Amino acid sequence: MATLLRERTAAAVPLAADPALWRRINRRTWLLLAAGALWLLGFAFLHGTATLSLPAAELTDLHRILNHFNAWIADNRDGNPVFVYLLTPLRSAVGWVAGFFMAIFAASPSGQLIPVMGWLGTVAVLTWIAFAVGNVRVALLTAAVFTFFGFQGLFVDAAYTFALVVTAVLLTLVAGIPLGVLAGISNRVQKVLTPVLDFMQTMPTFVYLAPLALIFLIGPASAVIATVIYAAPPVIRLTAHGIRSIPENTREASDSLGTTGWQRLRTLQLPMARRTIVMGINQSTMAALSMVTIAALIAAPGLGQVVVVALQSLDVGTAVNSGLAIVLMAIVLDRVTTAASQRAEPGAAKSRRLSGRTRLIVLGATLVLALGVVQLSRTILWAAVFPQNLNIGPAIGDGVNAASGWLQANLYFLTHSFREAVTVGILNPFQSLLTDTPFYLLSAVIILVAYAIGHWKLAAVTALSLAVIISLGLWNDAMVTLASTLLATIMVMLLGIVFGVAMGRSSRLDQAMRPMLDAGQTMPAFVYLVPFLGLFGATRFTAIVAAIIYAAPVAIKIIADGVAGISPTVVEAAVSSGSTPWQVISKVQLPMARKTLALAANQGLMYVLAMVVIGALVGAGGLGYDVVAGFVQSSVFGKGLAAGLAIVFLGILLDRITQAAAATPVRRQVPVRKQVASKI
Amino acid sequence: MARTAGLLNRSLPAAAAAVGALMLLTGCGAATVNQGVAAGPAKTDCGTINVALNAWVGYTADAAVFDYVAKNKLGCTVVEKNLNEQISWQGFASGQVDVIMENWGHEDLAKQYITDQKVAVDAGSTGNVGHIGWYVPPWMAAKYPDITDGANLNKYADLFKTSESAGKGQVLDGDPAFVTNDEALVKNLNLDYKVVFSGSEAALIQSFRTAEANKTPLLGYFYDPQWFLSEVPLVKVNLPAWTPGCDADPEKVACDYPVYNLNKVISKKLSDSGSPAAKLITAFKWTNADQNSVAKAIQGGMKPADAAKVWVDAHPEAVNAWLK
After folding, report:
1. pTM of the model
2. Spatial separation of the C-alpha atoms in residues A601 and A491, rounded to whole Å
3. Domain-by-domain residue ranges, chain B?
4. pLDDT band at A175; cut points 50, 70, 90
């Protein structure tokens, strides 16, 4: 209790006693109020003027110039040295690696449908690898899930997907870890790389998929490269982060022994950053898997194809069956890489039950067993091709179709009126506030808000981003997108706080919720869009719901971790001083998890933004629609490219503002802390 | 800290050993199941044909029948690739697509790849006739008989209001890949409507399905032949009839869509190769009824290849005429 009090007062005093800080907070409130007043006045008097709206089929001169990009690639592919000496060999190399893994797991190179390793061999080898890098539990999970793919009637498709994900992750690591190390030891590299990584993560894949298919041709090689572009940033960032967070004095101690840069890297930095690097591998693997359906659009084989083809005939059941396989594969890859990262923990070796030598013997014996099974799967048909009569995929599909039909038939009027209420009551007025206010006025308001939160530097970044969006000719579409994005983010945060706090307070609930959250994050949105269309129609609301499903799990997980991470003594103190559970949540746990809340808001926003393009497939309109149209119509390709850039800059703007808001103290916090302190 | 035998150090040799052992097995020449399968049908001079599969079931029906005949009567190796229209045309340039089975207009792409780059060739009509237009669910045509005349649309605009259409009637558009003049039509015909972009064909079909099931109003872009019309027979709304040249300027269009004679497009490479498949694709011709019968079977859950076999077995003269 005594230590607790000391902590508390130590934390509260500088906040309350620093008059400069108070002034700044006050000034900020005034600036924000002024911005709000300016906005409302502008909306009231200048409503509908200077909205910069551009009908869907119309282009600006810039869009027409960008239209030539595709034609330029087509013209230069054969002659330009960059293509001949760099891109074409790169394609062949990537294609070779992808072909190698596909041949092993999914199909032999002669074009037959039987892979080098049959299904049983694949299961055996993967189980052994899971055991070698992880533990017995994840090995059993691997065996169970990969066998289940067979029962789903999807083993070959799953094997294709697995082969492509493995290829993409390997290439990601080959390129990503050295880059991450460089960014970790050099500030200059870090500075150059950060905006590039932001760009890679926020640029919608649909924008570069068509040019990519032109450069690297249709098929697995392009799909792998598109996947690498999206999946590389997490491992680069986390590798750099891991190296940077090694304590300064540890490094100095090593330097004082006279180590060279290379020695330091090999003996100190890489080993100490190992756990963070493996976490990066985990994140990149998940990102790679989330590209499966999109890669199917340029003819990459696998589970994504099944989803895309099933949806052409609105066959929800088949799509869900395949989506389930993707989710399960994601769970396996997540658990195995997580187990690997725990094994990589510096102190983990001591607590192991098996000694190093026993473990080696066990590994050797099981490897021999696995190879025996592989040989079996190469010689006996039932072990090579999963028996057709064990296929329960159609049964799963029929069940899902029946359930989704029932939902659509019986819930429609309920969901319909709910949608109408939200759209007419909240979304339409809010969107009108954004789209009908003159662009110069709204820009000024946003820049003022940025200045209030983060001063000149943030205001400058904001002004630049807005200027780019305006000059791309897509201001109005950007505001349509912004309205839905902000509304979805608010819903994500509400869900995040409710479920995150509940999960943070109860580890049992946490365990029960995790698989569902994983499913929400990895189930391809294509799969649940059709039933949602049945329930909510082709509207912006449907797009918002889809975005919430994808983004809420992240926010919930972050908040749950934050709440669970609060020192238990603090909570106990509050409870013993007679606080009700509600008071504990609102006065202790939420305020103390404030940083986590801000992080959750930031990540929730980014994830919602990642769904802008998918949302456009169900009626979201705005920038997402421009991107989708640009992907499928060469005459509006330039507009799609411009819309992609606009999404990137919208993302940068929102990211920087929320990060700055997270970094500065919030006014509300001061009285809250005082209250808790006085109670104790 | 000196213990650097990390995760990678430990698992890499292990993985390498696994891969090495695997390669040993692959090379050891034991009789494997693969070798039995590899002896498939004898190869002929037809070679490999890459067929683009676009996203609608009518197209799938065309492709299924062509693929079945090419495989089984000519001994070709057929590779099917699921692609959208734009990417399919790109494939002509990169040599990765040989056949597009059902092309709807796309004059810009035809100009780029047939006229300018000369990598593709028009392979003639499929015999199918395509209609694009505005459609309403059947219950509306029954309840409001005069709605099928486009001149009456403004009278019903209130009916089609939604939360998305900003106080006007809603015209729902589908996949952005499809040919559309709808925004210009609304403007030039002075309709009190707003075009709302659903963004995908799945969204459009699902919307019509819900509208018919719940008897809610819906006006939307649709086209025939399409499998969904055999589930819900949508009724076309007639706009001012198409006359040659009335849609020349996309900004000033004030007439209905033309009737599309759907055609096949093949790569220049295939066309020049003298492969029997090139002759087959050029001769391929059937009716909307033929296509619908195959498309319906596929829609009903049959595999495309099986549905194609049923049709081919039932129409030997038609197939023989293609092969002559």
Report:
1. 0.83
2. 11
3. 48-129+262-323, 131-259
4. very high
